[in-house]
Design goal:
Elements lengths: L1 H25 L3 H23 L3 H27 L6 H21 L7
Family: Belongs to the UPF0382 family.
Pfam family, one: DUF423
InterPro entries: DUF423
Length: 116
């Protein structure tokens, strides 16, 4: 599971860089740059959390964090690039990102499992 979460975080990072470049070089809506920033920050946070804390709570927190980031940034990208509104998808993604941070905070407070 951890390897898949690292893969997802890496893909978020790559997409964040790509969309930041699109935002910087095409003159599209500023929301594209905002989406890229959120995606990059949360990809880095996911890597950090996975490196720092080893528990199933960490995996759950990272999964919720990245799912929320996908919803939020994806909705912002569609809005900025195509003028398409997905209704409450961006706010739902934002709430999931917040929930992911709270789950990671709870994971940080739990004792570390024994290492083999």
């Amino acid at each position: 599971m951890r390897r898949y979460l690292l893969l997802l975080a890496a893909l978020h990072g790559a997409c964040g860089v790509a969309f930041a470049a699109i935002g910087a070089h095409t003159g599209v809506a500023a929301s594209v740059t905002t989406g890229a920033q959120f995606q990059l920050f949360h990809a880095a946070a996911a890597f950090g959390a996975l490196a720092a804390i080893r528990s199933r709570w960490t995996g759950a927190g990272v999964l919720v964090l990245l799912a929320g980031t996908l919803l939020f940034s994806g909705a912002v990208y569609l809005s900025g690039l195509a003028g398409v509104s997905l209704g409450p998808v961006a706010p739902t993604g934002g709430l999931l990102m917040i929930a992911g941070w709270f789950i990671l905070a709870a994971a940080a407070l739990r004792p570390d499992p024994p290492r083999p």
